[in-house]
Amino acid sequence: MNLNAIQERLHGLFPTEADIPEECRILAPLHQRAILLNGEMKIWKGETRAVHSPVHLRAADGSLAPVELGSFPVTGTEEADAAIAAAAAAWDNGRGRWPTMPVAERIACVENFTNQIVARRREIVNLIMWEIGKSLADSEKEFDRTIDYIKATIAELKNLDNANSRFQIVDGTIAQIRRSPLGVVLCMGPYNYPMNETFTTLIPALIMGNVVLFKPPRFGVLLYYPMLEAFRSAFPAGVINIVYGQGSVVVPHVMASGKVNVLALIGSSKVADRLKKAHPKTNRLRAVLGLEAKNAAIILPDADVELTVKECIAGTLSFNGQRCTAIKMILVHQAIADQFLRRFNEEISRLKIGMPWERGVTVTPLPEMQKVDYMNECIADAVAQGAKVLNAGGGASVETLFHPAVVFPVKEGMKLYREEQFGPVIPVAPFEDVETALEYVISSDHGQQVSIFGSDPDQIAQLVDPLVNQVCRVNINCQCQRSPDVFPFAGRKDSAEGTLSVHDALRAFSIRTMVAAKQTEPSKRLLDNIVLGNKSNFVNTRFIL
Q1: Burial profile 25-43: b = 16 or more Cβ within 10 angstroms, e = fewer
Q2: What is the DSSP pairing of strand 168-170 with strand 173-181?
Q3: Mean pLDDT value across residues 464-468
Q4: Mean pLDDT of 323-328
Q5: Which secondary-structure segment (H or E) carries 332?
């Protein structure tokens, strides 16, 4: 099939309005004019920005036009200052209602919020699908996984608080050690998991007693509109405030205020570096960062080809490869390269390309045209330096729909060798000496995960030992991924700062704090009086099971 035929086929995959299932339709554009500030819905009358879906509609004449989803406020530094002031007042130097509230009451607020957004699941899922082009099945999975994460966080906090609900006596000192909030958290999530990844920082930050300034991702803004009332009614005024506007303007402004205690960002290392430097007192700033990655798959000569192909397909192309945990470089031993690539290309040719609501779809429209341009740029660069696109139709595109491309052989000096492509282009490089594959990971600026495919326990063990000192997760005969959420999610080098998991996130957004007294009778009586009289929310022995 020639390029024109492939592009014609891709063009025909975009729907007419009549093709869209009734239950998935956007009945009317959602023009958001409300901003949540200091517990109130403020009506915005200023500049707005239109939101268009990566899904295009095909008109009778064959022309394509993106679906208009709505618009949202474009606020400026004045509104950012109001959000900072509201958060600072709610924190009140640690004296605010939220940071001093009993753990059980904070949990009840989070549960209230959760119940409210569960009631709007269908609306939120539909917006995820339309805003970023994620398949309906994966959009549903993202919502449900987020709810599961919230429930697991609540359970973990109960365990943590119960374990700390006792006094310790060491060397004549009585102490109670608990975890206290850090202050004002600036929370920013990514567009590829606009709900789930955002909530893996936002929920732990909130439930530990911090107050939050939340900047929605650039794609995935409208999906938060159905949650605004839940945020407003479930939490005290000022505990969560939402910042809109141009990120490059309002976010550095917020950081420059010096009032942010924690930067929680899922994004790029360059942005994280700039934001940290914008803070006037960096020694007071804690950073919880999930950054870029260039995860490699190392395929050894004795790998099970069918299993390897299956895992590498999922690892490279789940949500179009737009995952920080995606496999973004395949290193295959020369002895098995031809066999692997033949089967890999066969399976790619069987993948369903189409619209996100279609059952069984794998490849869907990309959220931005710039990403399509970048994919083409990467392919052209590799081809110019001697690589080839191996699969039929690889790299063909129409508007936001991009046919996956397998590029081989990729080598040092090509963009695809080191840059994180974050899309459906799959670079493959051969190796003869396993040391070459190991050196690729060692020399990388990123250190999140790696996958090893093989069956020789001695060779795999010899690879595991150095690799665990380069990345934070080594996957054996399976793709790179984040789940289960109870496992630590971290990275070395430029890939992360801090560790996220249900367990670790609660600790990332808090600090161990203790109340201590000498082991004397007057001290015992004083502490007994505080505890038995329920006079302190910190010094207590209550259990919340």
Answers
A1: ebeeebbbebbbbbbeeee
A2: antiparallel
A3: 98
A4: 97
A5: strand 327-333
Same domain, 345 and 258: no
pLDDT at position 254: 98
Task: For the chain, state the CA radius of gyration.
Answer: 25
491 assigned to some structural domain: no
The number of folded domains in the chain is: 2
Q: In CATH, what number is assigned to the domain containing residue 188?
A: 3.40.605.10
Last residue of a domain, one of 290, 320, 345: 290
Same domain, 269 and 300: no
- Same domain as 203, residue 242: yes
Same domain, 39 and 145: yes
CATH number at residue 346: 3.40.309.10
The answer to whether residues 300 and 286 belong to one domain is no
Which pLDDT tens digit goes with each residue over 395-436? 999 999 999 999 999 999 999 999 999 999 999 999 999 999
Tokens 């109340």, residue?
515
pLDDT tens profile 353-366: 999 999 999 999 99
Count of other CB atoms within 10 angstroms of residue 167 = 16
State residue 545's pLDDT score. Answer: 63
Neighbours of 346 (CB within 10 A): 11
Q: Which residues pair with 265 in a beta bridge?
A: 188, 289
Q: Which residues face 463 on adjacent strands? A: none
Considering the domain boundaries, does residue 66 fall inside one?
no
Which regions of 467-532 does DSSP assign to beta strands (E)? 473-476, 492-493, 496-497, 510-518
Please give, one letter per residue, the 3-state secondary structure of 173-207: EEEEEEEEECCEEEEECCCCCCCHHHHHHHHHHHH
| Residue ending a domain, choose from 484, 503, 520 | 484
pLDDT number for residue 1: 66
Tell me, yes or no, whether 152 lies in a domain: yes
On the question of pLDDT at 61 being above 70, the answer is yes
The whole domain housing 423 covers: 295-484
Enter the pTM of the model. Answer: 0.96
Determine contact, residues 288/263, Cβ cutoff 8 Å.
yes
Nearest to 494 by CA among 444, 451, 423: 444
Q: Percent of the chain beyond pLDDT 90?
A: 97
CA pair distance 66, 26, nearest whole angstrom? 13
Closest by CA to 364, choosing from 120, 33, 14, is: 14
Report long-range pairs for 275-281 (Cβ below 8 Å, ≥24 apart).
Answer: 275/251, 278/252, 279/255, 280/256
